[in-house]
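Input (structure):
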């Protein structure tokens, strides 16, 4: 087995390789003067089971191109099987035609990854589970829910918890955590009048006096979660904490979250933390490296991955 790291999240790739007691495969993934991506694998990988770790996070297009060109290099080097390990799958929110004459970019990205040479994909908390069907190769979509539930049980023991989905689209994800914690579920009726702007219409459920745990897949501008936290506090919630799988944190998101009524936000390291995230007083990272490493080991040994969902 070989683990190849592209550049979007080397610390995570290193942690996955370390958990598997493997060195990262020697490779150069660099830029020409005009910023074209150039990839060179410095080890023989003929006949190997190769895992390429790359989140297609900001800058999404550069990171996607690195992944595609690395897959092409591996395919042309006669790897036996290539798995694209994409902890954060960018473009996932463009999973349907949102209006007339608009693309389904998530499908295009799935086609590109397959065409570039991936035999399978390993990812985490896809924005919409049905994106798996955009691929005609196997996709293992891991969940952060077990990791989050364990952390919540440790940190919030004895508190009167209520799990909250910040929008209708996130209900299945939030309900999975509520079921693990044996708590109630509330739902926020969110509207998006236009891209990048979210408004809370209603809180569905009685959050008065409860310690609320908001659960989401992505924090981008932070608008959804900050507005949700404000609405919960206005409705009498005692405290609001947040668990999010992918910390995109665009623009002034970290500052916005720092100023919001949020006790603590927990994100995974599917996307490498910026300095602003690292020094933030109310954002904490939980690593998914052991989960990814275990999935990689099981894929390589052709054993079941489904027990990792428990
Ligand atoms: C939307 O459906 C997603 O699950 C997230 O709630 C959304 O992407 C968060 O974006 P923002 O932080 O910009 O409100």
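Output (sequence):
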């Amino acid at each position: 087995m070989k683990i190849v790291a592209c550049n979007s999240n080397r610390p995570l790739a290193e942690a996955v390789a370390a958990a598997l007691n493997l060195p990262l495969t020697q490779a150069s993934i660099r830029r020409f003067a005009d910023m074209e991506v150039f990839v060179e694998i410095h080890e023989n990988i003929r006949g190997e089971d190769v895992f390429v770790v790359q989140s297609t996070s900001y800058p999404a297009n550069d990171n996607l191109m690195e992944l595609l060109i690395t897959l092409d290099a591996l395919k042309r080097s006669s790897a036996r099987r290539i798995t694209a390990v994409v902890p954060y799958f960018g473009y996932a929110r463009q999973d349907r035609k949102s209006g007339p004459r608009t693309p389904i970019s998530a499908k295009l990205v799935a086609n590109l990854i397959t065409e570039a040479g991936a035999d399978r994909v390993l990812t985490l908390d896809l924005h919409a589970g049905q994106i798996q069907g955009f691929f005609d190769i196997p996709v293992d979509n891991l969940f952060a829910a077990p990791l989050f539930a364990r952390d919540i049980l440790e940190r919030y023991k004895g508190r009167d918890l209520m799990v909250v989905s910040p929008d209708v689209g996130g209900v299945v994800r939030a309900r999975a955590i509520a079921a693990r914690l044996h708590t109630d579920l509330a739902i926020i009726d969110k509207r998006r009048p236009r891209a990048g702007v979210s408004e809370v219409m209603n809180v569905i459920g009685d959050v008065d006096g409860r310690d609320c745990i908001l659960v989401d897949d992505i924090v981008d501008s932070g608008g959804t979660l900050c507005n949700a936290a404000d609405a919960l506090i206005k409705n009498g919630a005692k405290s609001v904490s947040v668990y999010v799988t992918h910390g995109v944190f665009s623009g002034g998101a970290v500052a916005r979250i720092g100023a919001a009524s949020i006790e603590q936000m927990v994100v995974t390291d599917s996307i490498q933390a910026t300095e602003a995230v690292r020094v933030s007083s109310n954002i904490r990272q939980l690593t998914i490296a052991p989960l990814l490493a275990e999935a990689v080991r099981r894929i390589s040994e052709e054993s079941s991955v489904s027990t990792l969902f428990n």
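Notes: The first helix runs from residue 10 to 19. The pocket of ribose-5-phosphate is lined by residues 93, 166-167, 169-170, 198, 216-224 (CB under 6 Å).
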